[in-house]
Amino acid sequence: MDALSRDCDEREDHRFQIAQRVLGEWFGDVRAFGDVRAFGDVRALNTAIGDTVISVNRNRPGMSGSLVFRVTTSSGDTLALKGYSIGTTVDRVTEIHSVMQTARNNGCDLVAELVPRRTRSQSQTHPTICVFGDRCWELTRWVEGHPFNQFDDSKAIRDAVSKGATAIARFHDALRGLGGSGPFGACQPAPCIAARIHRIKEIDGDIASLFGANLNQIANPDLRRSLGKCVERLRAKWRNASGSLARSLDIQAKIPQPCSYVMRDIHHQHIFFASNPQNGLLLPVVSGIIDFDAVRVDSPATDLARWTSSFLGNGSSVQHLWDAALAGYRLQSSLNVQQEALFRGLIPATAWISLANWAIWLVLQRRSFPVEDLAIAERIEQCVRIVDSIG
Fold it and tell me: Domain Aminoglycoside phosphotransferase, which positions (predicted)?
């Protein structure tokens, strides 16, 4: 085993030890687990916390830097132990939990149930949060199912977009009035518009440096190839696209938009589907929504745009996906004319900004992400396909 592999194994072992200690906090025994080196030996963990946990497995990491473990208990429960990304504060997690709990209290059971701690320390002021090391932790019921993955079937794509939009509308309806002054508080401009106008101006200032950068600094050949496509698209179309998008968003910024708490970062990996037997067929239904790290007060249109755009680039037309998303949303709730216009306008703006962000983050800012280079390359390839599909 080389030094890099040993270092990775040691970091992974350390993460499991932290997860053990956090579970000890949750289930009522705070004895140290530092002596447990082999996490596969769950007997030590069982002895410490009363034979409650029988297995703990780490989920594949995502882009955010959070840690997620699947926890199975002797009573048959399956739980998700999540460590928020480093730097996420207790106040921020408290806000997220308030949104999650309000959604559930108002009938949106697609949001995972938070599991309160059994220990007394910190439990009265923050009953669903454990602070350990440099992270805030939460424990929720496990959301069964999996993200949509039939991207070679255009009918299935439209069906998933529609059902996911209905689920998003359920979430929005459950939060009406939270964070706003009425059923939906009016924001002018909606934060999503102001943020995109600001980001386009920032990208305009970086684009010349990006075009002059040497991509050979990117060691991984697959990632370098994907970034090459990304920069080519930006070189060919960014100037015209950014001007058109800025003008469109400036118009939207003058229109008061109803706002409340929304997810803001909801794409095809964040809504889970499970099979439901109907008339002898196994039909996919939405089983849950995950990852509320980005919740803020904003326009509901931003969620619908993020969700819909994540299905682009797979052969389905923008118009067909727009229609599917709006039809699904209307089964549960509604958008006014201004919101529908914003929904349609946010899709190209989000697509072009996402493409430029990846190039700037990796080439100019040299950022690193807690996933393999191939996963980043695949994400960039998807961004390229999306901007190609919208023209």
Answer: 66-308
pLDDT digits (tens, 9 = 90+) for 73-101: 877 889 999 999 999 999 999 999 999 99
Q: Tell me, what amino acid is at 355?
A: L
- Per-residue pLDDT tens over the stretch 121-130: 544 567 899 8
Superfamily of domain 146-390: Aminoglycoside phosphotransferase (APH), C-terminal lobe (3.90.1200.10)
Q: What are phi and psi of 209, to 5 degrees?
A: -65, -40
DSSP letters for 240-282: HHHHHHHHHHHHHHTS-EEEEEE-S---TTSEEEEEEEETTEE
307: CB partners within 8 A, 6+ apart: 161, 164, 165, 168, 266, 267, 268, 271, 325
How does residue 38 score in pLDDT terms, banded at 50, 70 and 90? very low
Distance between CA atoms of residues 27 and 213, nearest Å? 52
pLDDT, tens digit, for every residue of 213-236? Answer: 999 999 999 999 999 999 999 999
Which runs of consecutive H residues, i.e. helices, occur in the chain?
A: 3-27, 43-48, 90-105, 154-174, 191-212, 221-253, 300-309, 318-330, 337-359, 373-390
Q: Would you state the pLDDT for residue 17?
A: 73
Distance between CA atoms of residues 166 and 169, nearest Å: 5
- Secondary structure class of 65 (helix, strand, coil): coil
What is the rounded average pLDDT for all residues in the chain? Answer: 85
The topology under which CATH files domain 3-141 is Phosphorylase Kinase; domain 1 (3.30.200)
pTM for this model (two decimals): 0.86
- The boundaries of every CATH 3.90.1200.10 domain in the chain are 146-390
Q: How many other C-beta atoms can be found within 10 angstroms of the C-beta atom of residue 278?
A: 9
Identify the burial level of 361 via C-beta atoms within 10 angstroms of its C-beta, where 0-12 means exposed, 13-18 middle and 19 or more buried: middle
Determine the length of the chain.
391
Q: Give the range among 91-105, 167-181, 311-325, 329-343 with minimum mean pLDDT.
A: 167-181
Residue 259 · residue 297 · CB < 8 Å: yes
The token pair at 326 is 């709006």
> What's the Cα-to-Cα distance from 82 to each of 1, 78, 123, 290, rounded to whole Å?
30, 13, 17, 11
> In the chain, which residues fall in CATH 3.30.200.20?
3-141
Q: Residues near 235 by Cβ (< 8 Å), separated by ≥ 6?
A: 211
